[in-house]
Amino acid sequence: MSERTIVITGSSDGVGAAAARRLAAAGDNVVVIGRSVSKTKALADELGTDYLCSDFSDLAQVRTLAGDLRQRYRRIDVLANNAGSVFAADGLTVDGFDSVLQVNYLAAFLLTTLLMDVLVASKARIICTSSSSQRLVRPGVSVDDLLCVMPVRPTVAYGRSKIALVMFTRELHRRYGGLGVSAASFHPGFVNSNFGPASGSRVLKVMERAHSERLVGITPEAACDQLVWLAADESQDFEPAGDYFVKRRVGRAHRITYDPRHCDELWQRTATLVNRS
């Protein structure tokens, strides 16, 4: 079996770093993508693999990242859209979008679509890290709500962005599944990592404190299991059809994600947003 190229965003620490370690140990060429130069380089040096840095709060940097990946790699076997954050304060990015919406969803959409010809030629698997927090968003949420570019409470924006990722994954399958591209999203569980404390979110701080008392939370090494499983070699006995996974099984996502009309609308409107930014 030839060495595969696996690109993981948000892999300088946490779930992404844990997944990178396991996949590299299995013999894959893992490309580590992160915002912090020092942390990203440190992991790449540890694994003896490549790395690139990009700040997803700036879509110009996402475009540069896509160009660098296209230039360096003739094929990409797996693209894991794992980067994400919850921010301590409401705010807009340099592109004029809500920070959480852009880092968690818009940047992943832009990177994936800019690489799509390479991904199709590689018959790649695209994996998006979502969250069960999407199900806390009110049932009547609309595409307008999901693409609200003005700042809202970080926890609301976070849940909405994770819904958008599930819908994006379903639409990826609808548009490109017939060309050999497979897609899946998953919930990693609440993770004991830098994610919560660094965000400043009061909800996540409470959960982090509870984890210290062994009430909730899992390690990044445990949380990366589904990402590694979904990125496994083609010999696995299933092809995810844009499904959302929880504990290696198809899970229940937010109601809006099951309507193909909304998924198509979200794709088209997202494309308009990022292409004019």
What does this structure look like?
- This protein is of the alpha/beta class and 277 residues long.
- The chain has a single domain (5-275), classed as NAD(P)-binding Rossmann-like Domain (Rossmann fold), CATH 3.40.50.
- Helix content is 47%, strand content 13%.
- The protein is globular.
- Mean pLDDT is 89; it is low at 194-199 and 206-215.
Overview features:
12 helices; 8-stranded mixed beta sheet; Rossmann fold; 277 residues; alpha/beta; 47% helix
Could you list the spans in which at least 5 consecutive residues all have pLDDT below 50? 194-199, 206-215
Number of DSSP strand runs: 8
CATH-defined fold name:
Rossmann fold
Helical content (DSSP H or I, runs of 4+) = 40-55%
Mean pLDDT across all residues, rounded? 89
Under CATH, the homologous superfamily reads: NAD(P)-binding Rossmann-like Domain
Structural class: alpha/beta
Q: In the CATH hierarchy, what is the class?
A: Alpha Beta
H-E string:
EHEHEHEHHEHHEHHHHEEH
Biggest β-sheet: strands ordered side by side in the sheet = 3-2-1-4-5-6-7-8
Q: In terms of topology, how is this protein built?
A:
Layout: E1 5-8, H1 14-25, E2 29-34, H2 37-47, E3 51-53, H3 59-72, E4 78-81, H4 99-114, H5 116-122, E5 125-129, H6 143-146, H7 154-176, E6 182-187, H8 195-199, H9 202-212, H10 220-223, H11 225-230, E7 241-246, E8 249-250, H12 260-275
Parallel strand pairs: 1-2, 1-4, 2-3, 4-5, 5-6, 6-7
Antiparallel strand pairs: 7-8
Helix pairs in contact: 3-4, 4-7, 4-12, 7-12
